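hey
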């Protein structure tokens, strides 16, 4: 009997641990009960009896859910559902030095895509003071938009300000998460710095486009600005 025939006749063995299974069942239970942030969950003893497993297994599963930011302990209330901090959860594992190049590339591309996509928020919520602050960041930047990488200090300050201008706390959380990866990729030489014979939109030019308060124009300008990175990533 060949391996394919044998595989079709024998079911795969479930290799997940009991804690893994309990963790999944708990999440399903919370969802089915339509529990919301702040709602209390049953006590360990109650969960243990209902699921037919030891309190040790329940405790370990709950510890995992706490680490994921799905539940938290509240004084005088017990364990309650928590709205997870998505960027915070990811940030715990976002350690540039131990991520392989493929993952670094994916994360770096994600940062670029987000910044193109948030153009509407930036334009719609930008105040005159915001625009002047952006200009003050890059007013002394040398004109180097052709065939060269932008200065990393200007990149971090300028784009960090753009995230702040969106007023979106989740976006700002993602920016904090992605920043270490961005700095690592930029300074470690993983971005190919070979001349690509193309002129890109500079930070100063982005500010001037933003003054027009036209989301479409700003989005196109941001895309041309970020092409300076897109065309160089791990080439």
């Amino acid at each position: 009997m060949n391996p394919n025939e044998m595989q079709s006749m024998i079911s795969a063995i479930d290799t997940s641990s009991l804690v893994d299974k309990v963790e999944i069942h708990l999440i399903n239970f919370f969802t089915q009960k339509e529990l919301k942030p702040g709602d209390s969950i049953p006590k360990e003893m109650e969960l243990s009896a209902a699921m037919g497993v030891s309190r040790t297994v329940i405790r370990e599963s709950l510890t995992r859910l706490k680490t994921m930011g799905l539940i938290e302990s509240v004084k005088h209330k017990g364990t309650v559902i928590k709205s997870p901090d998505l960027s915070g959860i990811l940030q715990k594992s976002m350690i540039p030095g131990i991520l392989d190049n493929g993952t670094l590339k994916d994360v770096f591309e994600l940062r670029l895509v987000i910044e193109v996509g948030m153009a509407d928020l930036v334009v719609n919520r930008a105040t005159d003071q915001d625009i002047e602050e952006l200009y003050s960041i890059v007013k002394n930047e040398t004109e180097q938009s052709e065939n060269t990488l932008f200065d990393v200090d200007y990149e971090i300050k300028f784009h960090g300000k753009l995230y702040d201008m969106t007023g979106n706390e989740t976006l700002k959380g993602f920016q904090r998460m992605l920043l270490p990866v961005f700095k690592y990729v930029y300074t470690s030489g993983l971005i190919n710095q070979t001349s690509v014979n193309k002129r890109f939109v500079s930070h100063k030019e982005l500010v001037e486009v933003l003054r027009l308060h036209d989301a479409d124009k700003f989005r196109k300008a941001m895309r041309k600005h970020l092409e300076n990175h897109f065309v160089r990533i791990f080439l």
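The chain has a mean pLDDT of 82. The chain has twelve helices and two strands.
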